[in-house]
Amino acid sequence: MDFAALPTKGERTRAHIVATAANLFWRRSFHGVSVDLVADAAQVNKATIYRYFADKGDLALAVVRFNGAVTIETVFASSFDIYSSPQDRLAAIFRFVYGAHETMLEESGDIYGCPIVGLALELGQDMPEIRKEAQHIFDQVENYLTIIARDAVDNNGLNQSPEMLGRTLTQLLHGAFASARLAGAPSRILDAGNASLALLGFADTQIIQQERV
Amino acid sequence: MDFAALPTKGERTRAHIVATAANLFWRRSFHGVSVDLVADAAQVNKATIYRYFADKGDLALAVVRFNGAVTIETVFASSFDIYSSPQDRLAAIFRFVYGAHETMLEESGDIYGCPIVGLALELGQDMPEIRKEAQHIFDQVENYLTIIARDAVDNNGLNQSPEMLGRTLTQLLHGAFASARLAGAPSRILDAGNASLALLGFADTQIIQQERV
Amino acid sequence: MDFAALPTKGERTRAHIVATAANLFWRRSFHGVSVDLVADAAQVNKATIYRYFADKGDLALAVVRFNGAVTIETVFASSFDIYSSPQDRLAAIFRFVYGAHETMLEESGDIYGCPIVGLALELGQDMPEIRKEAQHIFDQVENYLTIIARDAVDNNGLNQSPEMLGRTLTQLLHGAFASARLAGAPSRILDAGNASLALLGFADTQIIQQERV
Amino acid sequence: MDFAALPTKGERTRAHIVATAANLFWRRSFHGVSVDLVADAAQVNKATIYRYFADKGDLALAVVRFNGAVTIETVFASSFDIYSSPQDRLAAIFRFVYGAHETMLEESGDIYGCPIVGLALELGQDMPEIRKEAQHIFDQVENYLTIIARDAVDNNGLNQSPEMLGRTLTQLLHGAFASARLAGAPSRILDAGNASLALLGFADTQIIQQERV
DNA sequence: AATGAATGAGGCTTCATTCAT
DNA sequence: CATGAATGAAGCCTCATTCAT
Fold it and tell me: Is D167 touching C (CB cutoff 8 A)?
C-alpha cells in the first residue's frame, strides 16, 4: 500500500490507478464508473490506463486483487498479529469493519457494501476470473475465521466442527455487509459481530465501538 | 404470477416484460442487459417497453418489486402456510432456496446470487427507491424469520432475543446467497440452513435435499 | 440504383448510406473515412448506420457489392445490350471507363483507381469476404471479356484461346486503372483500350473520346 | 540491402526499421499497421522510429522508396545484367515475380499484391509525394519494358511502337499483381508473362517455373 | 396497443506523437 | 543513441430514449 516505495515510476502509476478505481468502483459500481472518470480522478490520461491494463475488465480484476490484499492484510492478518485469543481476534475484526462503516457514513453519507462481493456479483457472469479471485479471497477469510472457531471450540468445549463454524462466520460476515448496505446502518455490523461471538460461546463479550478521533 | 388471469391485455404485456427483465437482470446484471435485449427476449417492440415504464430504472424497480413479491409469496408465506413448527418452516424455506439453486445450476450451468440484493447493490447509489424497496422486502423476510425464532425460543428455552436471532438468520440467508454464488456451490445454502437450525436449538434436524423430478 | 423505388423507408436509407460510403471510400480509402464522416455525408445519425450494418467492415462489404453491381450493369451489361460486335462492345466499355475518368478529373481534380480493387487490397487481409466478393465480380468481368474475345477470334481468325485472351484483357483493364491513378492521366485508359483492340486484331479501330456535354 | 555494410549504427537502425515496416505495410496495409507494431516487430523503441522519421507518413515514403529500389535492382536491373535478348529478359522478370508469389503463398498462406501500388492507392490522396514516388518507379519499370519491346520490335519486325508496347507491358504487369492477389493464385503471374511474350511475338517461348530448392 | 425507424450522448479503445531521462 | 512513460485526439460502437405511423 506504500506506493512511494514501489521501484519504478510505472509501478507507482499503476498502483495509483488501481487504488483510485477501487474507490470509485466501490462507491458507484463497475458500470457506473467510466474509464474517463477513473482517468480524471487519478489525474492520468486515459491512454495511460490502457498502458497498464488490457481493458476495463482487467482493471476491475486488479481492483479485486487489491481489495483482497488490503482486506486480508489490514483486517485479518493485523487482528491476528495484535491479539491471540479467539474472542479478541474476532472482536477486532468486527470492530475494524464497523469502524470503516462509521467512517464511510460520515465521510460520504452512505454505505457501500463489500467491494469484493459487489464487483463479483456485477461481473461474475462475464469475467470468471473475477469470481475466481473473489472466491480465493473468501477462502482465505474462511481460513482465518476457522482458526478462530477452532480455538473457541477448544476453549469453550463446543460440540460443533470448527470448519462448519468457520463457514457460518464467513456467511454471517457476508450478511453483515449486505444488510448494513441495504439498511444504511453500520450497527448491522455490530449485530453480526455479537452474533458471531455468541455463536462461539463468548456470549459475555460484546463488541463496543472504540473511541475514534 | 398467473399472467393469463390479468384483466387487460396491457397488464399482461406489462407483467410479461417485468418477468422477462427479472430473469435477464438476474443472470446478467442491470447494466449487462440492454433494453434492446429485454425487448427481443420478451418478443415485444422496444417502444412498447417505454409505454409501460418511464425508463430503464423504472423497469428495474418493477423487477425488484416483482422479485420481492414472488419471494415472499412462494418461499415464506407458502412455507408458513404448509408448516407450523419453527423447524419445519425454516427447513422448508432453505429447502426451497436450495432447490432453486440446484435447478439454476442444472439449467444454466451457473448460480446467480440473490436477484434483489444484486440489483440493490448495483443501483442503490443512483436509485434510492430501489434500495428502499429491497430494504422493505428484507424487513418482511426478517419478520418471518423472527416469528420462527420466537417460536423456537419458546419451544427450546433459548436465552436470546427473538429479534436478534431473526436478524442473524436474515444475515445468514444473505450470506448463503453470496457464498453460494462465489463458490458456485448450492451446498452453501444447505450449510447456512443447517447452521440456522442449530442456532435455534434444532441441532438434530438436518435439511435434506428432497427428491426432485 | 433507383432508390426512390425501394419498398420500405429502411431499404432506402440503407441504400443511401451505401452509395454515400461507396463514394467516400473510393476517394479516400476505407481507413481514411470515419463512420462519423459517412454519417455526416449521408445526413444520417451514426447509430442509424449501425442499424443497417453490423460494423464498418460490413458496410465496406455492402459497398463492394454495390460497386460490383453498378459496374457490371452500367458498363458491361449495357455495352452488350447496345452493341453486338466485339470491337464495338470493347470500345464502348473502354469509352465508358475513360469518360468516367475524365469526369472524375474535372469534378474532383483527381483520379481514384478502381474502387473494387482498392477496397480489396486494403481489406483483403482482414476480411476474406471482401476479397471473395471482388474475385467474384472480376470473374464476371472476365466472362464478358472472354465472350468478346471469342467473337473476335472467330471474326479475325486468331490462333489464341479466347479464355487466355479474356484473362489478358481483364488484366489489362486492371492495369489501366492502376496506371491512370498513378499517373493521374485518364489517357492511360485509352492506351489500354487501344492495346486491347489491337490484341484482338482490331488494329484499325481506335477508341475516341466522345463529345461530352 | 546489405544492412551490415552501412557505415553508422544509426543508418543500420534506420534501414532495419524501413525493411520491417515495408514487410508489415505490404501484408497488412498502411492503416492496418500501428507504429507500435512496427516498433515491436523491429525490436526498437517507438521513440526511436520518430528519431529517424518525421511521422508515420514519412516512414511510408521511405518504404515506397525502399520497395522501388529493391524492385528495380533485384528484378529489372538484374534481369538485364544476366540476359541480353528481349525474351530472356522478359521471361526472367516474370519468373522472378512468379517465384516471389509462390514463396509468399507458401510462407504466409496468402498473396499480397504489389507493395508499391498498394501504398500508393491507400495514401495517394493524402500524400502526393508517395504517388509521385510510385509514378517515378513505374516510369523506370516502363523504361525497362520499353527497351525490351524495342528489341523485340527490331528482332520480330512488329509494326507497333515500342513505347506503346512498353506501356501495355507495364499495365499487364500491374494487372498481373492485382489479379494474382484477388484470385490468390500465383499462376496469374505466369498468364500475364506468357501474354506479354506473345504480345512481343515470342509466342513459342513459355515461362516455366524454375526448380526451387 | 404496438411498431419500424431514427437519434444524441456517451462508452471503450487505439492511435500517432512527444517528453524526460 | 535509445528508452519508458505519458498524452490528446480520434475511432468504432452501443446505449437509452423518442418520433411518426
Answer: yes
Q: Residue D208: what pLDDT?
A: 74
Q: Dihedral through CA C142, CA C148, CA C151, CA C155, nearest 10? A: -130
Query: Mean pLDDT of all residues in chain B?
Result: 93
Interface membership of A40 toward B (CB under 8 Å): no
> Quick one: which of D39, D100, D34, D37 has its CA closest to D67?
D100
**Listed residue (B7, B13, B9, B15) closest to B65, CA to CA:** B15
Q: What is the pLDDT of residues B49-78, one digit of tens each?
A: 999 999 999 999 999 999 999 999 999 999
Cell of D185: 493464385
Please indicate whether, in this complex, the C-beta atoms of A171 and B167 are within 8 angstroms of each other: no
pLDDT in tens, B35-45: 999 999 999 99
8 Å CB contact between C207 and C192: no
- CA distance, residue A32 to nearest chain B CA (Å): 8
Contacts of D51 (CB under 8 A, 6+ apart): none
- What radius of gyration, in Å, describes the C-alpha atoms of chain A? 18
Q: What is the pLDDT of residues A14-67, one digit of tens each?
A: 999 999 999 999 999 999 999 999 999 999 999 999 999 999 999 999 999 999
Is residue D146 within 8 Å of D173, Cβ to Cβ? no
Chain E footprint bases within 7 A of protein beta carbons: 1-20
Q: How far, in Å, CA of D89 to CA of B94, rounded?
A: 89
| Rounded average pLDDT over C163-177 | 98
Distance from CA of D11 to the nearest CA of C (A): 30
* Contact predicate D20/D38, CB 8 Å: yes
- For residues B175 and A188, is the Cβ–Cβ distance under 8 A? no
**D80-123 pLDDT per residue, tens:** 999 999 999 999 999 999 999 999 999 999 999 999 999 999 99
State how far the Cα of B58 lies from the Cα of B52, in Å rounded to an integer: 9
D47 CB closer than 7 A to any strand F atom:
yes
Whole-angstrom Cα distance, residue A62 to residue A73? Answer: 16
Point out the nucleotide closest to D48 (alpha carbon to C1′): F2
HSE toward the beta carbon, residue B95, CA cutoff 13 A: 17
Neighbours of chain C (3+ CB pairs under 8 A): D
Per-residue pLDDT tens digits for C50-79 = 999 999 999 999 999 999 999 999 999 999
C5 burial type by CB count under 10 A (0-12 exposed, 13-18 middle, 19+ buried): exposed
Q: Which residues interact with strand E by a CB < 7 Å criterion? A: A 31, 34-37, 46-47, 50, 54-57; B 8-10, 13, 44-48, 51; C 8-11, 13, 44-48, 51; D 31, 33-36, 46-47, 50, 55-57
Strand F and B36 CB separated by under 7 Å: yes
Sorted by where each starts, the structural domains of chain B and their CATH numbers stand as 3-199 (1.10.357.10)
